[in-house]
Amino acid sequence: PKPSSSVKLVLLGEAAVGKSSLVLRFVNDDFQENKEPTIGAWSHRPSNFTLTLISAAFLTQKCNLPTRTIKFEIWDTAGQERFASLAPMYYRNAQSALVVYDITKPSSLTKAKHWVAELQRQASPGIVIALVGNKLDLAGPANEESGVTDTEEEETQGDEENRRAISTQEAKAYAEEEGLLFYETSAKTGENVQTVFEAIANAIPES
Ligand code: GTP
Ligand code: MG
């Protein structure tokens, strides 16, 4: 059998950016339109061990790479501000982190940058960090970047409007500066979700 290692991964980001939804897509290949915020509650799943603690949920999922298997131990934290001070419990000793923002919400990128800075200051020195812009499905069918329209009337693109408020370019430039992996995802359609976790798994050094 291939060598297998456990990797602790923490998800951080503003409330409602889709952290739990990304985990649900990765672990169960599922999506819920009205997912409840992560807080203290408790649940159980038959196939994947799920335990919800105060301010975070814990799940595991394996990722098969060509030469090894990575077993992710995932801490999905609550994004609500009142839980922010508990985050160090979850990122302590983490080998990897997903810092998530919502591409339709500029404040969520600001918050993501704060988490990145905190991780760089306080987490393990070799931590692999991925910046993830979620809700890519809301960028519209052609996935065009929003240009600021000077006209009063809003541009329409068929039935679906483009709600993107943060350009790929802007976030990518920031990620490159800070040495982060960078992806845009949709937990709703599943686009790039597996890719993010695989990229993290690949970036974890073999020990
Ligand atoms: P907290 O637990 O409060 O920190 O929030 P969270 O980051 O875990 O967000 P959650 O996964 O609960 O998602 C919040 C809302 O956004 C839910 O209604 C989801 O259905 C929705 N959502 C999550 N991901 C996506 C996505 O990729 N696209 C769209 N359109 N909606 C999404
Ligand atoms: Mg959540």
Features:
about 210 residues; alpha/beta; 7-stranded mixed beta sheet; 5 helices; binds guanosine-5'-triphosphate; binds magnesium ion; nucleotide-binding; Ras family protein; GTPase activity
Report on this model:
Keywords: Nucleotide-binding. The chain has helices at residues 19-28, 87-91, 106-122, 168-178, 193-203, and strands spanning 4-13, 51-53, 56-64, 69-77, 96-102, 128-134, 181-184. The two termini are 17 Å apart. By secondary structure, the protein is α/β, with parallel strands linked by helices. The model is unreliable at 149-157 (pLDDT under 50). Strand 6, helix 4 (168-178) and strand 7 form a beta-alpha-beta unit. A seven-stranded mixed β-sheet has the order 2-3-4-1-5-6-7, sandwiched between helices. The chain is globular and about 50 Å long. The longest helix is centred in the middle third of the chain and has 17 residues, at 106-122. The structure holds guanosine-5'-triphosphate and magnesium ion (MG). Residues 13, 15-21, 32-35, 37-38, 78-80, 134-135, 137-138, 186-188 line the site of guanosine-5'-triphosphate.
